[in-house]
Amino acid sequence: MKYCSTCGHPVEQRIPEGDNRHRYVCISCEEIHYQNPRIVAGTVPVWEGKILLCRRAIEPRYGYWTLPAGFMENAETTVEAAMRETMEEALAEVVVDGLYSIIDVPHINQVHMFYRASLKDGRFGAGEESLESRLFDLADIPWGEISFPTVRKTLELFVEDVKNDSFGVHIDDIRRPMSATSKTG
Amino acid sequence: MKYCSTCGHPVEQRIPEGDNRHRYVCISCEEIHYQNPRIVAGTVPVWEGKILLCRRAIEPRYGYWTLPAGFMENAETTVEAAMRETMEEALAEVVVDGLYSIIDVPHINQVHMFYRASLKDGRFGAGEESLESRLFDLADIPWGEISFPTVRKTLELFVEDVKNDSFGVHIDDIRRPMSATSKTG
Ligand SMILES: [Zn+2]
Ligand SMILES: [Zn+2]
Known about the structure:
Two copies of one chain form a homodimer. Chain A has helices at residues 78-90, 149-164, 178-181, and strands at residues 11-14, 23-26, 32-33, 38-47, 50-56, 65-66, 69-71, 94-105, 110-119, 130-136, 170-173. Chain A contains three helices and eleven strands, in the order βββββββαβββαβα. The structure holds zinc ion (2 copies).
């Protein structure tokens, strides 16, 4: 951020009065431009005991498998965001069964939230950001080609919970850089 | 938003190629300036069966009682944000017991998250944004002077769960305008 989005004059970094953090503050109109984490919302879509994954048609992680998920938009709820992303990326209508995982990723200022979901009628496809979508048996999840640590973590938790037939809400965080963990798979 | 925060030229609202929503796009450098919901994180701080509430020293809702909560900052987790806000507003160190409520408030582009917590040593006070802090018996919660609908909802759920001695994670949303509900007392 270099310029004030309200008046177009330059901003500087300083600690505003009564605050304890550096903020971008406009040198002309004095507006404080706060920056906050973003939510990524998605689903774990299930159909007849299989999980629907999408193969990414965009960077980062082009060609890798992911759960359908993306940035939450203004004016929607987290559930709506998760359902919308599932429709956009996997062309699948889902019924949401419950919140499943919340994974903080503080070094990239994101919070990832996944909902458990069931395909409504078994139909799915490849949205514009996907090369393909496919239903995987839990034993056949392509662990070596998973897109992101939060997706991997959520899938690991899910496989474990299916074994135990018990689905709680999982709170976790991933603090190491994505580039490091994404190579361990 | 009127000006591009990257180059200082004006922005216009249009639907970028491959998108389906209006965005602020710079007419000069073409950067797309996305806007996303913000997370408000807080705690339900308990000590010897009582709940710690803070009376707000700032607008909006000056003088009303609230759970300690505030906007999550970059580079922290939701738990860290909730603990930080509890320290800032109630001068209380807490141990977090678990996620309690996630309440979407789509008309103001916010997601509120509250964690169940216990005071570490029973000490608390009034931070700069609080007139005072006080421990309330559940029977004495000042329902007529609660600050925000998400705080009211979380307190209602908590009182109910204490009765049943069962604390799950509650997902909910509040869609009506705050100004309407805040008058119902
Ligand atoms: Zn300005
Ligand atoms: Zn620009």
